[in-house]
Design brief:
It holds the Pfam family Hus1. This is Checkpoint protein. One of its GO terms (biological process) is telomere maintenance. The structure is a single chain. By secondary structure, the chain is α+β, with helices and mostly antiparallel strands. It has two domains: 145 residues, Proliferating Cell Nuclear Antigen, CATH 3.70.10.10; 122 residues, Proliferating Cell Nuclear Antigen (Box), CATH 3.70.10.10. The chain is 18% helix and 41% strand. The chain is built from five helices and 18 strands. The strands form three sheets. It has a nine-stranded antiparallel sheet with strand order 10-6-2-3-4-18-17-16-11. Strands 5-1-7-8-9 form a five-stranded antiparallel sheet. The termini are far apart. The relative contact order is 0.16.
């Protein structure tokens, strides 16, 4: 089992750093799945038990100048590691102006992801800063626990408003309630609502648009003006909105009525899915 990768391009390094920063805001620990073509950051708290789930997928060719790996077996050429994303994020923060960054799987008293950052120097010799990030190797028999989450048939799919705007609205609401109702329809309308014994506040977003497949895949008997809604933990929603550094080209929200809210952020070379279960 081997893994080594190298980033030279500064733009790719900064992009990878932004992705790792986002992951560190969304999960205290997660699974890093390595395959020859892609990297995945996976958080698989059981949604049925009220936990959030995350699935972030990166095409390695868009980030790494060199990428070599040998999985646990020829017929299973993958590696699954458990890591604390904050440690990876911190290591990459030292690489702001690096000449190169090398990441490899090592064994130093315990399995580690070793991040070697080559920094520019005034002298002819380079300065290299090394970070050893402890990881746990996940045995193959447990890999099925980390498959891509299945998306239930949604009632509404809608494009999200500007994430910064949505974040500022939710930040104000969290001072008044511990949960928020998110509702949307097939006419491009979305509302964020909080309802307490003392106050009821709604923020309306209009003309957001629905993806072309929304009206085809959504329940056939649903009127386009009917709202699908889910009541979710406001802190979990704010954690998702506050952690975003991916700068998506498209941001979508799927709602399964009273069951789950499924967010998708799409960039040219990154996709991030985030699942928040509805509160009963």
């Amino acid at each position: 089992m081997r893994f080594r990768a190298k980033i030279v391009d500064l733009g790719c390094l900064n992009h990878f750093t932004r992705v790792s920063n986002t992951i560190s805001k969304l999960a205290k620990t997660c699974t890093l799945r390595l395959s020859p073509d892609k990297l995945y950051f996976i958080l698989s708290d059981k949604v049925a038990n009220g936990g959030v789930s995350m699935w972030c997928e990166l095409g390695q060719g868009n980030f790494f100048d060199e990428f070599q790996m040998e999985g646990v077996a020829a017929d299973h050429n993958e590696i699954y590691l458990e890591l604390t994303p904050e440690n990876l994020s911190r290591a990459l923060k030292t690489a702001q102006n690096a000449k190169t960054v090398k990441i490899k799987l090592t064994n130093k008293h315990c399995p580690c992801l070793t991040v070697a950052v080559e920094l520019p120097s005034l002298s002819s010799s380079s300065r290299i800063v090394t970070h050893d990030i402890p990881v746990g190797v996940i045995p193959r028999k447990l890999w099925t626990d980390f498959r891509e989450p299945t998306v239930p048939d949604f009632d509404v799919s809608i494009y999200l408003p500007v994430l910064k705007t949505m974040k500022s609205v939710v930040e104000r609401m969290k001072n008044l309630s511990s949960h928020v109702i998110i509702e949307a329809n097939l006419k491009g309308e979305m509302n964020l609502k909080i309802e307490t014994d003392l106050v009821c506040i709604t923020t309306h977003f209009k003309d957001l648009g629905n993806p072309p497949w929304a009206s085809e895949d959504a329940s056939q008997d649903r009127d386009s003006e009917n709202m699908a809604e889910a009541r979710i933990d406001i802190k979990k929603l704010l954690q998702f909105l506050a952690g975003q550094q991916v700068n998506p080209t498209k941001a979508l929200c799927n709602i399964v009525h009273n069951r789950i809210v499924h967010f998708i952020l799409l960039h040219e070379d990154v996709s991030l899915q985030y699942f928040i279960p509805a509160l009963s």
